[in-house]
Specification:
By secondary structure, the protein is α+β, with helices and mostly antiparallel strands. It comes from Chryseobacterium endalhagicum.
């Protein structure tokens, strides 16, 4: 069996707030790539719940955080469609992403 690793390194300030985040993904050719935010979700099938780690640096601008969240919402619809084949629900998630973009002032009506 082949193994691969994706790692995330987080440097914290004295108040335990992320100052720098870098990530590595050998198979993707990513090494010590800086990022301002990351969201990681894993499924715990024993407790039947999603476990999450959401981190962002002090330098992450609010307008970029809004775009980041919007793109995550769009990708959730894509992932849902690929995993379930339920096009109608995927389209509904896309509509939610569109509404978010308008309400968060990423995009105008």
């Amino acid at each position: 069996m082949r193994k691969t690793q994706i790692t995330i390194d987080v440097e914290l300030d004295e108040n335990h707030i992320p100052e720098n985040i870098t990530w590595n993904a050998q198979d993707g050719g990513v090494e010590k790539e800086e990022t301002k935010a990351t969201m990681i979700s894993v499924w715990d099938d024993k407790t039947m719940e999603a476990l999450r780690i959401d981190l962002w640096t002090k330098e992450m601008p609010v307008d970029q955080m809004k775009m980041f969240i919007h793109q995550i919402l769009v990708s959730l619809g894509n992932t849902y469609q690929r995993a379930t084949g339920e096009e109608d629900v995927a389209e509904w998630l896309e509509q939610i992403a569109d509404e978010f973009a308008i309400k968060s002032a990423i995009r105008s009506v």
